Amino acid sequence: MEAILFYLTALVAIVSAVFVTQCRNPINSALNLITTFLCLAVFYVMLESPFMAAIQIMVYAGAIMVLIVFVIMLLNLGLAVKTRYTHGLAGGGVLAAIILLLANYFIRAGEATGTGGEITSEVIAKYGHTELIGRAMFVDFLLPFEIASILLLVAIVGAVILSKREV
What we know:
Blueprint: H1 2-22, H2 26-46, H3 50-75, H4 77-83, H5 89-109, H6 121-127, H7 129-140, H8 142-163
């Protein structure tokens, strides 16, 4: 039963990811991206990580997609996309297929290192997912977290400045 759910979710994720690139309307692409994010949340639940699934839904399928749709509407990309279609779709598809085949080959030809991390199932049971993720994010990786937040802020300000029409 688990395998059926996995393959069905994977199929929906792949189809919706393909539709992200195939849709002419950017809003439809954004909706398909939300579907892909929801499928990723199902994968997190299957991996027994409910906190990451909730964060995936709240942050990515919620907040980030609202930001992306806001930028699409602000830049008025609907008119620009209707005038021209992605002409490099076939080349991108061939390149993606080659990369997928190479990645599959290297994964199957490689061996597991046999090394384990510090976080075992006993540590997760003792502290919980939320505390371990919070400790890693705000103690061990505080500087990269803050740099990412500054980059997102700069991207938002840049999008607003680019979309601003002459007054």
